[in-house]
Amino acid sequence: MDDGQLSTLSCPDSPLYLAATMKVASQMKQMGKLNRSLRDKRAKLYIIRRCVVMLLRWSD
């Protein structure tokens, strides 16, 4: 990358800067969805694990 492109990327009004910012925002949004999905799956596994332990320890 030459100095002209570098100065263009550092200028907030440039199209390249806006495109790079939008790309980063999109990636962060995808990471947020992934983190939410992982949190939901961990919560479900926690509930299942607690139920299995309860059933194993349960006696009349």
UniProtKB/TrEMBL annotation:
**Which Pfam families does its entry note?**
DVL
Location(s) in or outside the cell: Cell membrane
Cellular component (GO) terms are: plasma membrane
Q: Which UniProt keywords apply?
A: Cell membrane, Developmental protein, Membrane, Transmembrane, Transmembrane helix
**Predominant place of localization:** membrane
Question: What are the recorded Gene Ontology BP terms?
Answer: negative regulation of cell population proliferation; shoot system development
Q: Which InterPro entries match?
A: DVL (IPR012552), DVL_RTFL_regulatory (IPR051525)
What is the recorded membrane topology of this protein? Single-pass membrane protein
Q: Please report which protein family the annotation says this sequence is part of.
A: Belongs to the DVL/RTFL small polypeptides family.
Q: What is this protein's record name?
A: Uncharacterized protein
State the organism named in the record.
Answer: Panicum miliaceum (Proso millet)
